[in-house]
Amino acid sequence: QVQLVESGGGLVQAGGSLRLSCTASGRAFSSYAMAWFRQAPGKEREFVADYTSYADSVKGRFAIARDNAKNTVYLQMNSLKPEDTAVYYCRATINMLSGSYDYWGQGTQVTVSS
Questions:
Q1: Roughly how many angstroms between the first and final C-alpha of the chain, as a whole number?
Q2: Sign (positive/negative) of CA torsion 58, 60, 61, 67?
Q3: Is residue 94 within 8 Å of 104, Cβ to Cβ?
Q4: In this predicted structure, what is the pLDDT of residue 1?
Q5: Which of 91, 89, 94, 92 is nearest to 106 (CA)?
Q6: pLDDT exceeding 70 applies to what percent of the chain?
Q7: What is the pLDDT of residues 40-74, one digit of tens each?
Q8: Gap between the Cα atoms of 84 and 42, Å rounded
Q9: Cα–Cα distance for residue pair 86/82, rounded to 1 Å
Q10: Distance between CA 63 and CA 49 in Å, rounded?
Q11: How far apart are CA 31 and CA 16, in angstroms?
């Protein structure tokens, strides 16, 4: 079982920046495929970023990074817009002989005021 804890959300004005963090349990963090998703009120959860791609809506503004020594993945969010308001979740995908498993954090709220 892998536990993920997100932090760093908050209220920010449009044009501002935030850095989200997601810290994972486990000894094999470097092998976890990490990604960020978000869910706005009344909408489905959507992909934001992983190490191979970004959603079109965040390209050039958001950047994902990881520190394997700290079991942590980050999402640096710049030039924030009101439409970025959502609960942000990190996901860890772990591939084992028995299959591929996804784990989710509890989410962190990001609110961007206009």
A1: 40
A2: positive
A3: no
A4: 83
A5: 89
A6: 100
A7: 999 999 999 999 999 999 999 999 999 999 999 99
A8: 14
A9: 9
A10: 8
A11: 32
Paired tokens of 57? 């809506």
The answer to whether the CB of 86 falls within 8 A of the CB of 74 is no
- The first and second tokens of residue 64, run together, are 């994902």
Sole residue written with tokens 């920010």: 12
Cα 106 from Cα 7, distance rounded (Å): 10
Give the mean model confidence (pLDDT) for residues 72-96: 97
Rounded CA-CA distance 47/64 in Å is 13
Cβ within 8 Å of residue 66, ≥6 positions away? 34, 51, 72, 73, 74
Sequence-ordered list of residues with C-beta below 8 angstroms from that of 111, at least 6 positions apart, any chain: 9, 10, 11, 12, 85
Task: Please choose, from the candidates 96, 83, 91, 84, the residue with its C-alpha nearest in 3D space to the C-alpha of residue 107.
Answer: 91
CA distance 28 to 8: 24
